[in-house]
Write a structure and sequence with these properties.
Order of helices and strands of chain B: HEEEEEE
Strand content of chain A: 35-45%
Distance between the termini of chain B: 38 Å
Largest sheet of chain B: 6 strands, antiparallel, barrel
Number of helices of chain B: 1
Number of strands of chain A: 7
Mean pLDDT of chain A: 87
Strand order of the largest sheet of chain B: 1-2-3-6-5-4
Largest interface: A-B, 25 and 22 residues
Radius of gyration of chain B: 15 Å
Shape of chain A: elongated
Shape of chain B: globular
Distance between the termini of chain A: 14 Å
Radius of gyration of chain A: 17 Å
Strand content of chain B: over 45%
Order of helices and strands of chain A: HEEEEEHEE
Oligomer: heterodimer
Structural class of chain B: alpha+beta
Low-confidence stretches of chain B: none
Structural class of chain A: alpha+beta
Number of strands of chain B: 6
Largest sheet of chain A: 6 strands, mixed
Helix content of chain B: 10-25%
Number of helices of chain A: 2
Low-confidence stretches of chain A: none
Mean pLDDT of chain B: 92
């Protein structure tokens, strides 16, 4: 049996973020770093980029086809920490990180391994924490999925 | 003696005592290009900590603050402090009572 569809969506987004490898038009190279999909902590003092993906409250949509086909939508928050050392302009670096995440999540969903009906980028921000060696880009996403439930035993 | 002169003398004395005890440092402050000047010795305290960044705090990062005892030195954004083999760059001034100036710095 496959994993829950919400987890599959997180894994899909994780795979998209890991494609950010600093080549082919990407500004940054998250793919060389770490993407967290759980509640663990990451020590960014290592100097590597890191991202965190978290899911919010899952809202159930309309039920169709005798309750077997269901739709859901839920918010996803992506935090991306990019090391500053070597950057001449940390604010610009933060904007680049934000742009990379937005780009990673755009495009056709046909290749997605789950029935994603939409990924909407709701908003995005940048942050430069005082005394931090990282800049933070945050992107808020709304995901929609459809799921066909197996018939009851 | 004015209040600021008394405070400066007190802070210098306290730093001398803590330096002897190994709880403070002497470094070299280099002004930024925007305020050119010669490197100068400076009395400092360095506080090292971690901070949790990101919206849920799952990413741990440095947080280093430097308190300059300002006798003869006016720390500015972009100025650098060298202590031993480490160099810190002033990012944001957090406090300044006229005698001690505390900065968030980048390592």
């Amino acid at each position: 049996m496959s994993e829950p569809i919400t987890w599959q969506v997180i894994q899909y987004i994780k795979s998209r973020l890991l494609a950010i490898d600093g080549t082919d038009g990407w500004y940054t190279s998250l793919g060389s770093g770490t993407v967290l999909d759980d509640e663990s902590q990451y020590d960014a003092r290592s100097g590597e980029p890191a991202a965190v993906i978290r899911i919010g409250t899952v809202a159930r949509g309309e039920e169709q086809q005798g309750n077997r086909l269901r739709t859901y939508s839920f918010p996803i928050v992506i935090d991306y920490a990019v090391p500053i050392p070597g950057a001449t302009n940390p604010a610009l670096l933060a904007h680049r990180a934000m742009a990379d995440i937005r780009r990673a999540l755009m495009g056709s969903l046909r290749g997605a391994p789950v029935k994603l009906t939409r990924i909407d980028i709701v908003d995005s921000t940048v942050d430069l924490p005082e005394g931090s060696n990282n800049v933070i880009a945050q992107v808020n996403v709304q995901a929609g999925v459809s799921e066909t439930l197996p018939p009851p035993a | 003696m004015s209040q600021i002169e008394f405070l400066a003398g007190l802070d210098a004395d306290i730093h001398d005592s803590l330096l002897d005890a190994g709880l403070a440092d002497m470094g070299v402050y280099t002004p930024p290009a925007s305020h050119p000047g010669d490197p100068a010795p400076v009395a400092v305290y360095i506080d090292r900590d971690v901070q949790r960044v990101g919206s849920d705090g799952q990413i741990l990062d440095h947080r280093i603050e430097v308190a300059y005892v300002m006798a003869g030195v006016v720390p500015r954004k972009g100025g650098t402090l060298t202590v031993g083999s480490e160099t810190f760059t002033n990012q944001i001034e957090i406090e300044n009572d006229g005698s001690v100036s505390r900065w968030a710095v980048l390592a």
